[in-house]
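Incident review: delayed structure delivery

Summary: a single-chain prediction request sat in the queue longer than the usual turnaround. Root cause was a stuck worker, restarted by the on-call engineer. No data loss occurred. The affected request and its eventual output are reproduced below so the record is complete for anyone auditing the incident later.

Affected input:
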Amino acid sequence: MLNLKGKQVQLRALEPTDLDFLYELENDTAIWEISGTLKPYSRKVLQLYLENAHRDIYEVKQLRLCICRADQECIGLIDLFDFDPKHRRAGIGIVITNPGDRNKGLGAEALSLLCDYAFSTLDLHQLYANILEDNEASIHLFEKMGFVPIGVKKEWIRTSSGFKNEIMFQKINSDVS
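Output delivered after worker restart:
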C-alpha cells in the first residue's frame, strides 16, 4: 500500500487493538442514521470482523481504514465500499468520532489521501458519496474535496423523525479514461 500519511493524519489498516474503538463507534446511536445500523454490535462480532479485516478489497469489495493522528490515536474511520473493479468505481464514507476533532482539516486530509489511493493505486475512474441533506458538515467537506452533487434520492432514509432525502455526490478522476 502507498504511504497513506499526510501532515496531520495517516490512514492505516484495522488492528486487533482497535476492538474497543470499533465497539464504541459502531454502538454510538448518534451515527446509526448515517451508517444504516439497526442494532448494537457485540464485541464478539466485531472481533470476528477484525480477524477478517485483512481480506483483499477485490474479494470483499470494501476497504476500511483507521484515521490516526501522528501520535497513533485513532480518531475515525474511512471506507471504500461497493468496490466495482469492472466499472472502476466505489463509494466512500468517513466518520470523525469526536466532534472536537471536526472542522480542523483532519477529515479533508484523510479524504484526500484515500481519493489519491483510489485513483492512483486502484485505478478507479470515480468515487461517490451518499450524504443526508441536513448533514451540512459532510456536504461542505465533500464539495471542498471536489465532489459534485449529481442527484437527490427523495425520502431515501427513514429516521425517527420521518424520511430524509439523500444527496449523491460524485468525483470523477479526470486523469484516466
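Verification: The longest strand covers residues 148-159.
Action items: add queue-age alerting; document worker restart procedure.
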